[in-house]
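EI: anyone free to look at a 280-residue chain?
SC: sure, send it
EI:
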Amino acid sequence: MSKGPGLFSDIGKKAKDLLTKDYVSDQKFTVSTYSDTGVVLTSTAVKRGGLSTGDVAGDVAAQYKYKNTLVDVKVDMESNISTTLTITDIVPSTKTIASFKLPDYNSGKLEVQYFHHHATFTTAVALNQSPAVDLSATLGTPTFAFGAEAGYETTSGKLTKYTAGISVTRPDSCASIILGDKGESIRASYVHHLDQLKKSSAAGEIARKFSTNENTFTVGGSYALDNLTVVKAKLNNHGKLGTVLQHELIPKSILTVSSEFDTKALEKTPRFGLSLALKP
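SC: here you go
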């Protein structure tokens, strides 16, 4: 793919990942194995709720890559089968993604992404009798990008969403502003990387809902204690404090411990999460 402004979904993604990714509240165990034929088999078990209570769910996923084709298949405990087929460069500079879920025959979706040095375009169509259509476009460069997306419902003939965003990306920082929810909300974020490997970073985000005049301000960051251990924390103006400790037990195998506290109601029981991902 050519180097360009990236997809519209990339706008604001770095700050979102830093402030939300790995802040788990469940107990999760994942094991991945690799075969000589290139198949990756992943088994996941999740216990939602506390350590002594909660429901257990799980799934098994298989991934196979051959040349420019990637196939992902996932089966959950309710026998739902989700399949995603990704093919790169059927037409030069494009990526085609087809997905469907069984036994829900109306869940099919076809997406085509086009990448150019100064623009990217995506079109996604639901494969059912009354398909919804999503469109997005981004213009600019890897440093400066402006984009918009819209969703159209063919049955009612109405726009289901429209969003616009702008981002400025430098080697050590990234800033973005997104106007979303049909113009009812705005979110601005900034990330600054403190080292060249980008393991230690600081981020801030402010979001406002115009209909309710509600503001949410969140600050957070990550810090690499050493090559194997990273700590993360975030705090918003509503008093929600989240922490994460990640440690690489062996190469590619990660232990994640997270917690969430309400600093304005310390009598409430904190939420804890645990995730263990093992890869050979």
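EI: The helical segments are 13-20.
SC: 👍
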